[in-house]
């Protein structure tokens, strides 16, 4: 699988430079005093679309067919995309995390617990978004799958907003928040693994 | 030992059916798969690699069922499809790095030697390659990981005649090692005629014929004669006839024709065209 990851890293370097630019803009806006969480969240969530874009380039170059001639299993081909997605999301999360820490430091209100919660929330939202999209893409191809991705982003933002309103009113203690986060982490991990499994099964059935 | 054995292979799509295909490729041999567009050549190669799933039948590669640990089998198979699907932004050197981590027996020195031999730049992105260069890179990859079997689907198309000749020579060299074999499909029947030990004709998903090339060339001939002369021949001797204002041209079995008649040698291309017309 090393070859697949290396190939995706070469492609990432070539095609995804714009993501660094977008991340810098959003982080700069966030550091300049804008408290809207969207500016912190968006670069990480955007990384969720990287495996989708890479699959798009694979389709266009007919790598999808070519990889069928190479000694790779469907499990390896699918796993490489999930790993690249996770790698980019964690990298962006680290950058965003440093920026958030700087912002908290500038406002003189560093709270480690809040920071961890924020990072976890970002990682869960980002991985769940790509988890819900990738099986569609492995089955339907990128064009139809991309529509599913945007639909998922809309759905998750709406769900987060609704959940925020409800939880904002109902949560009174840190323990409750920690419990909910633990549950969300378990659900997020479960969804990610289930998504990977579904993608493998759907990719095995795809005609190359 | 047979490198490839296909028995009663069937696959149907909307408007196409590969119908009980049987093929055997002995070790050390080159077999040419000849057929018109849509005859089932690419489908056969994709089925061998399990890129599409068969409806029925069996495929054995190196004596093993192709669905049992195909990953391991593919280590020994070099494949060039009609389009080489490499990422457009990668250079040949980067492709080499990817393949080094893909094949256990990747030979970097051999790959670089082939890039040089085929005049391929190692630092130019794949998207800037011509079709011929893309095919050559595909061939270089297929021949750089210690393959024992090459599956080539229209691998010589898009190459200019000089390079095509060089590539055919490379394939010939490859089979000098008697453990190496090739299954090649091409529209350019003259290439296959130069290269192959065996030929298989596929037409509309059915195998018309599969035999040794030299045996076929010795067995068949083209008879030029008047229509009345042709009528005097035993019916089983004439496989196909073509009448025109100047006389009759017929594909005949040499052994069944009386001595003294004007029989000229048949080329594989002519044999294929006659047989396809006979099959309708």
Characterization of this structure:
Chain A has one domain (2-205). With 208 residues, chain A is mainly alpha-helical. Helix content of chain A is 86%, strand content 0%. Chain A has helices at 2-15, 17-31, 38-47, 50-61, 63-67, 74-106, 112-140, 142-170, 174-205. Chain B folds into 2 domains: 2-215, P-loop containing nucleotide triphosphate hydrolases (Rossmann fold, 3-Layer(aba) Sandwich), CATH 3.40.50.300; 217-279. Helices cover 32% and strands 31% of the residues of chain B. Chain B is built from 10 helices and 14 strands. Chain B has helices at residues 41-48, 70-74, 92-100, 108-117, 131-142, 161-174, 189-195, 213-219, 227-231, 268-279, and strands spanning 2-13, 16-26, 30-35, 56-61, 64-65, 77-80, 149-153, 181-185, 198-203, 206-212, 220-225, 238-244, 247-253, 263-265. The mean pLDDT of chain B is 88. Chains A and B meet through helix 1, helix 4 and helix 5 of A and helix 2 and helix 3 of B.
């Amino acid at each position: 699988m090393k070859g697949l990851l290396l190939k995706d890293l070469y492609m990432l370097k070539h095609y995804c430079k714009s993501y660094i630019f977008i991340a810098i803009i959003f982080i700069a806006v966030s550091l300049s005093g804008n408290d809207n969480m969207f500016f912190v969240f968006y670069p990480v969530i955007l990384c969720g679309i990287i495996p989708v874009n890479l699959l798009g380039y694979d389709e266009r170059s007919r790598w999808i067919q070519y990889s069928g001639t190479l000694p790779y299993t469907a499990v390896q081909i699918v796993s490489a995309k999930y790993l690249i997605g996770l790698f980019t999301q964690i990298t962006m999360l680290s950058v965003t995390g440093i920026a958030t820490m700087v912002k908290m430091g500038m406002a003189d209100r560093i709270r480690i617990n809040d920071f961890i919660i924020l990072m976890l929330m970002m990682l869960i939202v980002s991985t769940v978004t790509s988890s819900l999209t990738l099986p569609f893409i492995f089955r339907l191809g990128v064009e139809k799958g991309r529509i599913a991705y945007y639909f998922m982003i809309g759905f998750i933002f709406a769900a987060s907003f609704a959940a925020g309103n409800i939880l904002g009113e109902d949560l009174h203690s840190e323990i409750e928040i920690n419990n909910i986060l633990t549950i969300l982490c378990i659900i997020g991990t479960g969804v990610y693994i289930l998504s990977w499994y579904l993608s493998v099964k759907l990719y095995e059935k795809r005609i190359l | 030992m047979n490198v490839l054995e296909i028995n009663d292979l069937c696959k149907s799509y909307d408007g196409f059916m590969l119908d009980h295909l049987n093929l055997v490729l002995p070790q050390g041999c080159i077999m040419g798969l000849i057929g018109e567009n849509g005859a089932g050549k690419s489908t056969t190669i994709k089925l061998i690699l399990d890129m599409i799933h068969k409806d029925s039948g069996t495929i054995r590669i190196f004596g093993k069922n192709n669905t049992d640990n195909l990953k391991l089998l593919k280590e020994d198979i070099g494949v060039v499809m009609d389009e080489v699907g490499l990422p457009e932004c990668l250079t040949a050197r980067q492709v080499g790095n990817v393949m080094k981590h893909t094949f256990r027996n990747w030979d970097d020195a051999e790959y670089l030697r082939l890039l040089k031999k085929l005049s391929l730049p190692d630092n130019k992105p794949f998207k800037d390659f011509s079709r011929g260069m893309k095919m050559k890179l595909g061939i270089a990859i297929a021949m750089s990981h210690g393959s024992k079997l090459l599956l080539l689907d229209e691998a010589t198309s898009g190459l200019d005649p000089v390079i095509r000749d060089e590539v055919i020579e490379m394939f010939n060299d490859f089979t000098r090692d008697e453990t190496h074999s090739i299954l090649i499909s091409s529209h350019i029947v003259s290439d296959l005629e130069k290269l192959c030990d065996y030929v298989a004709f596929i037409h509309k998903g059915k195998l018309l014929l599969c035999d040794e090339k030299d045996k076929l060339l010795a067995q068949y001939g083209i008879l030029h004669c008047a229509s009345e002369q042709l009528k005097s021949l035993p019916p089983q001797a004439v496989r196909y006839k073509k009448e025109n204002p100047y006389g009759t041209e017929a594909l005949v079995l040499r052994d069944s024709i009386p001595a003294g008649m004007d029989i000229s040698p048949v080329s594989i291309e002519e044999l294929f065209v006659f047989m396809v017309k006979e099959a309708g």
